[in-house]
Design a protein that fits this description.
alpha/beta, Rossmann fold, 8-stranded mixed sheet, 9 helices, globular
Length: 211
């Protein structure tokens, strides 16, 4: 089964995760808000629009059932995949990829496309659950047991993502992280960390700039 099929069949169930885990959801949302994004941007793989509504971005999403949910949370929704975006070159001030890279059919192409649509000086925000963090290990374990979402995911380390971004000509300038106390349902104030520290957190946003 393709990832899009999973999200089409389980869109409402997936979206309910945020209401069932409000403390974790708030911590992740506050991490995104701490980035202070401005201008015109796009949220790639926006899902139901939970994070999109925090930035005011355009939602780009391939799942029609997710699009139905996202329409109530943001001003514009575009149907499409991150590996081949229906957007113009150098048209965006920022691009966000929030817990989406792990579900991409071709993660590097998704990042390459993001660079293409960014203006010079634009920001690419890639938020991940690091592979070797307690959360990453737990989700990977659930995936190996057949979890409907995590079995489709391929988690990355922060170092791996930074390597791809650097290879695409971007400059990584900062990291915002939260959920550093291990697996659990809790709130933790997001903070700026360095790349090595970031590996141990459950939610990390990597801020990179296109020259």
């Amino acid at each position: 089964m393709y990832t899009i099929d999973v999200f089409n069949s389980r869109a409402v169930e997936y979206d309910s995760w945020y209401s069932k885990h409000p403390s974790v959801a708030k911590a992740e949302g506050d991490a995104v808000k701490l980035l202070n994004l401005g201008g015109i941007g796009v949220d790639v793989g926006a899902g139901s629009g939970f994070f999109t509504r925090l930035t005011g971005a355009i939602a780009l999403e391939p799942s029609m059932q997710m699009i139905k949910l996202a329409k109530d949370r943001t001003w514009a929704v575009v149907s499409g995949v991150g590996e081949l975006m229906p957007l113009r070159d150098s048209s965006m001030d920022y691009v966000t990829i929030i817990v989406t890279l792990c579900f991409a059919m071709n993660p590097e192409n998704m990042l390459r496309e993001s660079v293409r649509i960014l203006k010079n000086g634009g920001r690419l925000i890639t938020c991940i659950v690091p592979l070797n963090s307690p959360f990453g290990k737990r989700y990977s374990e659930l995936g190996s047991m057949g979890h409907p979402y995590y079995s489709m995911a391929r988690f990355f380390t922060v170092k791996q993502v930074v390597g791809i971004l650097s290879g695409l000509g971007l400059k990584v300038t900062s990291y915002v992280a939260t959920l550093g106390k291990g697996v659990g349902d809790y709130y933790e104030e997001p903070r700026m960390v360095n790349g090595n520290e970031a590996e141990g957190y459950g939610f990390v946003c990597i801020n990179a700039v296109k020259p």
